[in-house]
Amino acid sequence: MFSQRKLYWFCQVLGWFGMVCIEMINYTFFIIQEFRIEYLTLFSTMALCGILFTHMARAILLKIKLFEQRPAIVWTWAFLSSLAVAILLSITGFIPYLFAQPIQKFISDLTFIELGASVMNWMRYTGVWMIVYSMYGILQHKSLLEKEKLNFISLAKSNELALLKSQLNPHFLFNALNSIKALVTVHPENSKHAIVQLSELLRYTLWRSQEETVPLAEEIEEVRKYLELEKIRFGEKLLVTFSIQIETFSYLIPPGIILTLAENAIKHGASKSEHHAFIHVNTILQNGKLLIEVENSGEIQAENKQGIGLLHIKKRLVHQFNDQFTFQLIQKKDSVSAMIQLL
Question: For the chain, first and last CA: distance in Å?
């Protein structure tokens, strides 16, 4: 605001005393063809009056919040304001003549054409002033609306992301508790280790989910814990392998997306398999682009594509990367591959 105020007063002084220069050049070289100090005094006084009158007009325009109105209303007010200021300047310009002759004679000698000519002459300056100021006000208001729109979109995205995170934690907790429940029944001696693993996973999902991104290495570590927990439950039936390229460790990704893919692989792969099942987690750089793949045995079912986990992954990727990613669920010969590529 301080910078805008300084700019405003700089333009006011520069503009009106620019008028003094123009009029003095006009009178000195073209009209009377000599320099007269009284004309410099007169035009300097008129410049000060111009600053005062236009500043008063600006205060009125701001008070009525003109630039929030339709353009037609803005320009109508701008014209009327410039006309009013020109009339005030014309009247002010005639005041010195009142002291040079009787008022009655001055009024009788003043014609409508002289008054109109004076108003039109000042309209050259007040009109330009109003056009420039109105254009600035319109553009400033438009810029403010754009900022408010962007803030609204950002707030909406933030609220949506917060909702996704609040939904994801109960979703993960439900799946993990089901695993613990099954583990207590099948292998009660391993329950203690499983509970420790679960507590570490919950700490990760509860605290790290508050952040926009986490290093991929940290996410993979939590995926390992989760799959270890599930491997205790499924035993030899489940084969888990990792192929993680070291160069991908430092890449930042939304927390929980690989973990959600691993949950889906268990839910739709190992849990439905009557025999052996496998899950393979792979990260690699391809042409400088990060590729994340979670592959599991099984087939894609129609309901798999509409699951809440996959929906959350897509929305969080959109929030973080806009359209700079691809997410695919591909049916291979005997397996399903979920692939995310960050472009």
Answer: 41
Asked if 252 and 216 touch (Cβ cutoff 8 Å), the reply is yes
Residue 275 DSSP class = S
Q: Is the dihedral of CA 204, 205, 210, 216 positive or negative?
A: positive
Which residue in 264, 323, 343, 311 sits closest to 160, CA to CA?
311
CB burial string 38-74: b at 16+ within 10 A, e below: ebeebbeebbebbbebbeebbeebeeeebbeeeeeeb
- C-alpha–C-alpha distance, residues 321 and 203, integer Å: 26
In order, the DSSP letters of 6-34 are HHHHHHHHHHHHHHHHHHHHHIIIIIS-S
Q: What is the pLDDT of residues 114-147, one digit of tens each?
A: 889 999 999 999 999 999 999 999 999 999 889 8
Angle in degrees, CA 88, 122, 70, rounded to 5:
80
Q: Which residue has the tokens 């890449």?
A: 251
DSSP 340: E
Q: b or e along 78-109 (b: 16 or more beta carbons within 10 Å of the residue's beta carbon)?
A: beebbbebbbbbbebbeeeeeeeeeeeeeeee
| Three-state SS at 35 | coil
- Tens of pLDDT, residue by residue over 278-312, are 999 999 999 989 999 999 998 887 665 666 778 87
Q: How far is it, in rounded angstroms, from Cα 140 to Cα 310?
A: 43
d(CA 283, CA 241): 12
Residues 61 and 77: their CA atoms lie apart, in Å, by 8
Report field, pTM of the whole predicted structure over 0.70: no
